[in-house]
Specification:
The protein has 146 residues and is α/β, with parallel strands linked by helices. The chain is 45% helix and 16% strand. It contains 6 helices and 5 strands; from the N terminus they run H-H-E-E-H-E-H-E-E-H-H. Strands 1, 2, 3, 4 and 5 form a 5-stranded mixed β-sheet that branches. Strand 1 and strand 2 form a beta hairpin. The chain is globular. The relative contact order is 0.23. The mean pLDDT is 96.
Length: 146
């Protein structure tokens, strides 16, 4: 999902789209960006551990310093993804970010231990939705809309 969004953003030559793992991204990455697309799986009805850790490590160091920047969210879930979307939205609200699109939730319907642990393959329409968010995000940044 994140790779598709980055690929969509790459169509806008004036915008540099970076794909950073939650484990390595930090406050300086947030401060250096004009906007954010947060992406990850929903695990046990919550954002993933690495994404939670990212927010824990970066929240206070950038609080009051990234207000008004745009964001979007991409979530892969076995059932509905709503709770992960709400968690991201609450953190973004605290940072005073501006949501530029409804969260995209790709539901894999993985409900058994075997299905949950198996690698996931996204459909072409799901990949296209993520790519479109990245393209629209980059175009909006380049046009000064966001």
């Amino acid at each position: 999902m994140a790779e598709a969004a980055r690929d969509g953003a790459a169509n806008e030559p004036a915008v540099e789209a970076r794909l950073l793992p939650a484990e390595t991204a930090g406050p300086s990455d947030l401060l250096g960006a004009d906007g954010f697309i947060f992406s990850g799986p929903e695990n046990l009805a919550a954002i993933s551990g690495p994404l939670k850790d990212f927010f824990d490590r970066t929240y206070y160091p950038v609080l009051g310093r990234i207000e008004g920047r745009p964001y979007a969210a991409l979530i892969c879930a076995g059932s509905d993804g709503d709770n992960a979307a709400r968690q991201i939205a609450r953190i973004a609200t605290g940072w005073r970010l501006r949501r530029i699109a409804e969260p995209i939730v790709v539901c894999t319907h993985a409900q058994t231990p075997e299905a949950i642990l198996a690698p996931k393959t996204l459909t072409a329409p799901d990949i296209a939705r993520c790519r479109d968010v990245g393209a629209a995000f980059a175009a909006g940044l380049d046009a000064g809309i966001f």
